[in-house]
Design goal:
The protein has 472 residues and is mostly beta strands. It contains one helix and 35 strands. Bound molecules: beta-D-fructofuranose. The site of beta-D-fructofuranose has 15 residues, from strand 1, strand 5, strand 9, strand 13 and strand 18.
Length: 472
Amino acid sequence: MADPHLPAVHPRPPHHWVNDPNGLVHHDGHYHVFFQYNPGSARHADMHWGHLRSRDLLRWEELPVALAPSPGGDDVGGVWSGNAVEADGGELVAFYSARHPDRWHQPVTRALSRDGGMTFTKHNGLLISEAPPGTTMFRDPYVWRDGDRWRMLVGASLADGRGAAVQYRSTDLVDWAYGGVFLAEPPTPLPGGGNTEEGWECAQYAPFPDGRGAVLVSAWDPKDGALCAVAWPGRETDGRFTTDGPQRLDHGPDFYAPALLPAPDGRWLMWAWSWEARDEAHVGAPSAWTDEVGWAGLLTHPRELTLAADGTLQQRPARELDGLRVGSPLTAEGTAGAGRPVELGGVGRACDLTVRLARGAGLQVVTSADGAEYLSLTRDRATGDVVVDRSRASLDPRAKGGSRRLPAEQDGPVELRVLLDHSVAEVFTAEGQALTMRFYPVGDRPWRLFATADGCDRAPYAVTAWDLATPA
Ligand code: FRU
């Protein structure tokens, strides 16, 4: 029997380890999503590029592993993260980090496909073999077209303790000239705790109109490893990026290594890695529970990114995802009272909820027959924040607990979109803030929704809930 926590509408192979989305590109009429994949086990080791593709962002096809380490080669230690573009001749060119156990850095190289990513020919040797002077970490190329030339960012750490995205330029996608630092910042506190860290993995760049843009990075600490994803909105002037300051890209605990895809219609789409929150000591550490179930990690749903007039980067689920909704929705509207939760009805384990919550109102997704196991979303009466709490979301004591806050300051009701899929919750406010959290319910009954209220007040709510399934 499949593990009950394996997602149904988030595509991934049925077994083994998955981390970062890689090589996101629209090519040959398909969205291609490659990803860090260990085809041999559920542990973070021996990285290959797995491959999924879709015409509509709804129906996904799993294709053969696209890139594997070459025995005795520069990437013998793993084909690590990178991205892909369609070259002027129509070929698909993937750029990646070549890991070798004898090197502290992961140089950049590339592989080329003429058959839509089914088979790749690797470049003979490395494209960028040395890390630039002054760096102490260097990996994860991100290539984009800028007019008639190509540009590349690579994630880095500088010897002075700053996280950095360094840059290169090319006209032919083969010869790359170093262009210095694009953006480097010292560890800077983030709203809600944590900071932007000393090392930036998977640096990405989304240019927006009028010279504005956003650099996305994954905050990495040499001691604690992967921590969280950060957006640096700002603007580019004379080849350098100036930022207005950092923004937490996702307010949940389980979102990392976001990667961008420029869609043919001009939208910026973004996928990220949502790691496990089972019994591992830290991200990427071996876990007895993960070994038992034989799979780890998933890619979030695709999200659309926009830059608001005030410079805030906003995200919402890709509009195509409405096509996963099946049947007619459950709708409920009313007022809950303290100590008197209102049962709204049942939902499937993959579902899409639109939830309106006044301050003090809440929603519980109850996943056991006796009501003891539930994921809860409550609107903090004092601050307005939406508190997503998984401390009771699994009766299995191995699962990680805790809660996180999604900022929502307004006095009036907050409109939430909540996408659930077996063990992952992706929550969005109408203002474009997001929170991703893994949870591991063990109840074997259908899930039920309840409206709740804090204190002694009456709390208005409105909920619309669709079940989700991949269309035939
Ligand atoms: C981010 C990351 C990248 C690296 C890859 C290895 O999660 O550590 O920096 O290229 O994963 O799997």
